[in-house]
Amino acid sequence: xxxxxxxxxxxxxxxxxxxxxxxxxxxxxxxxxxxxxxxxxxxxxxxxxxxxxxxxxxxxxxxxxxxxxxxxxxxxxxxxxxxxxxxxxxxxxxxxxxxxxxxxxxxxxxxxxxxxxxxxxxxxxxxxxxxxxxxxxxxxxxxxxxxxxxxxxxxxxxxxxxxxxxxxxxxxxxxxxxxxxxxxx
Length: 185
What we know:
This protein is mainly α. The protein is built from 11 helices and no strands. It starts with 5 loop residues before the first helix and ends with a helix.
């Protein structure tokens, strides 16, 4: 389902920025969609870190089978870690997903309060989980919570897009990219 702000945001960006107007016009049917339940989305993000999309999908498929397609904090906590590692998770990722599950089970992740929390408050909560850094938290804000004003400047794809679209592919400082991003706020 398309976010309620989507069309208004596209019109505003297109009016303010001719480059952005061109990008928006070239992709008229593209919009954000919520990417699943929070625990599942974050666990899958951890699973896919630093491996190819194909490898991540293969590992994730085995995790789903291992947990009888019930990917919940409780099912992860109850599962033997050796069985999770046998799915293709590294020792570290197994620890990270278990830590995520424990944060949810203990109530240290406050999903019910997220609608009232700022982006920075949610990021602060999420980075307390081992294996979730700022970039993962920002991607979560965009693709799960559909937050409209997240600017993940550490994202290499965003950096490349800005360089190609605004600076003819030339190297540009993060400060300059940040300033451009502020114009989109």
